[in-house]
Amino acid sequence: MIWGILAIMSMNLVDTFYVAQLGTEPLAAMGFTIPIVSILLSLAFGVGIGVSSVISRAIGSGEQTLVKSYATQSLFIGLSIAISFAIVGYHFMDEIFMALGAPKSLMPRIHQFMDIWFLGSFVVIIPMVGNSALRAAGNTKVPGFIMVLVAVINIILDPILIFGWFGFPRMELAGAALATVISYSAALLLSLYLLMIRMRFLSLSACKGLVIKSWKDILYIAIPAVGTNLIAPISVAITTWMVAQHSAEAVAGFGVASRIESICLVVIMGISSIMGPFVGQNLGAKRYDRIVYGLKISIRFVCVWSLSIALLLGVFGDSITRAFTDDPLVQASATSYFIWVPITYAFLGIIMLVSSMSNGLGRPTPSLVMSFLRLVGLYLPLAFLLGDMLGLEGIYLAGAIANILVGALALMWQKKLLIA
Predict the structure, then answer these.
(1) pLDDT per residue over 86-127, tens digit each?
(2) 166: buried, middle or exposed (CB in 10 Å: 19+, 13-18, 0-12)?
(3) Helix and strand tally (H, E) in the chain?
């Protein structure tokens, strides 16, 4: 899963690298798209968490018919969400991005990217939900391979469509979006083949009499999980608005830092992504000792990894940023982020692990509370306060403080969850 997530995250990094070659204005436009794209991905992740939780527990307890019903209905849930999101987003695009603080001069470039992205959003969300079903069965190699395949296709298509290589028209931001949609189309076809033919997880007949139960069980976990995952991009959207008050270059720097950060956190994301299915299967099999031990060693590893990444970014963050842009204002914004936030990645990792564990236990409320407290209860008020006092650095410092406080709370909470 680490390699698969790394591949997907590399797509964002590659997009950012090539778009940066077009200039600061296209890079800033892409920076404004990050929160909206993140919202759709959060919806997909939330449904995936619900699917993974119910399927893993059903597998652990040996209920194969229920497994097939859950897997089949999860795709219908994902499709419904994708279509609704695309309709709303496409219709109100100007209003959404103007509310984020995007200047009118950037709207044509934002349209270049998001017109295609909204229309192809269902291609992105379906394979993400399908891969969650595969992971719930303990199969992480195939979803990882699918994610790597998506990234490879995207990396090949990006420069061809963005710059118009090999006789293709120069599409710039539209090319980056189209490359993403084409890449995920391959994942969609492969995921459906694996779920239907190889795993035999998809079956309409298995859903007979179980449709309402399947939707109810999945959404019981998925709705709080969607809420948990939506809080982050909404906070990013508000952060983008606050950063935009400084300059478009500051937004571009924040966008570069965010994408580099996603690569640095990929190992933690990989571990947390399988913590839910791991806990769910062992809960269904009543192997509580393995849940306790698995979480214990995962927390230890995450702390060591996070400290190593913080040291790396502290020393080389400025050099990494310069590889993406030669604009000094963009560099300053990204470097400032790396000064304050990475030292708290260990606390963020603990939050992610404990959240995934609680979802695997079928108890999504702690995850929602931690996410709400970190981003809405602490980060946003502190960002407004410290932003006024310290400027751009104050916004970034607020994120670091919120990570530390809620990470400490997660450490205490996980003991109570395991005892319960």
Answers:
(1) 888 888 888 888 887 888 888 888 898 998 988 888 888 888
(2) exposed
(3) 17, 0
* Per-residue pLDDT band at 419 (split at 50, 70, 90): low
Report how far residue 335's alpha carbon sits from residue 356's, in angstroms, rounded to the nearest whole number: 30
- Cα(217)–Cα(215) distance, integer angstroms: 6
Q: How many CB atoms lie within 10 A of CB 1?
A: 20
Between CA 312 and CA 308 the distance in angstroms is 6
Which domain, by its residues, includes 320? 2-419
pLDDT at 35: 78
User: Tens digits of per-residue pLDDT, 360-369?
Assistant: 888 888 888 8
Kindly report the pTM of this predicted structure: 0.72
How many Å separate Cα 208 from the centre of its chain?
A: 33
Task: Return all residues near 303 (Cβ < 8 A) that are at least 6 apart.
Answer: 346, 349, 350
**Nearest 10 degrees: CA dihedral of 334, 336, 337, 339?**
130
- Total domain count for the chain? 1
Could you tell me which residues come within 8 angstroms of residue 217 by beta carbon, excluding any fewer than 6 positions away? 50, 54, 70
What single letter denotes the amino acid at residue 127? P
The two structure tokens encoding residue 199: 């795993």
| CB-based burial, 84-97: b 16+ in 10 Å, e otherwise | ebbeebeeebeebb
Asked whether 34 and 240 are in contact (CB, 8 A), the reply is: yes
Tokens linked to 81: 């969400």
CA distance 125 to 127: 6
In the 8-state DSSP scheme, what is residue 379? I
pLDDT at residue number 303: 93
**Region for 209 from its dihedrals, namely left if φ exceeds 0, alpha if ψ lies in -120 to 50, beta otherwise:** left
276-310: per-residue pLDDT in tens? 888 888 888 888 889 889 998 999 999 999 999 98
